Amino acid sequence: MTKKTAIRWLRSNATTYNLNPDKFAVWGSSAGGHLAALAGTSGAVNALEDFSTGNADQTSRVQAVLDWFGPTDLLQMEANSLPCSTICHNCSDSPEANLIGCPMPNCRLKAKRPNPIRFISPTYNYPPF
After folding, report:
1. Confidence (pTM)
2. In the 8-state DSSP scheme, what is residue 104?
3. What single-letter DSSP state applies at residue 126?
């Protein structure tokens, strides 16, 4: 189940669980922060929705995002890492390579799709981060 599927399911069941469907926030740290940021920036991106999982009549947009040190551009992880970092973000066993399925230098096009920064647009009304 994707985060977007879960958001739509929660909205669909908001009355049952006494939730306000107009006030959804997502939070995460590190990889979870990446997913929270992706949910916050891709609310209008139907290509990232899997409506076959149900609740297609509900939106997966959120009203707030708490991204605690989540990556926003997987392609820049190595370039932006701290000098003291021991993680090789471009290596085949990096967290990013495990997410994408191959090392960043070899998967540039594949790595662009899950980048929250990719979906930034001047025409979309983003939730507060």
Report:
1. 0.87
2. G
3. P
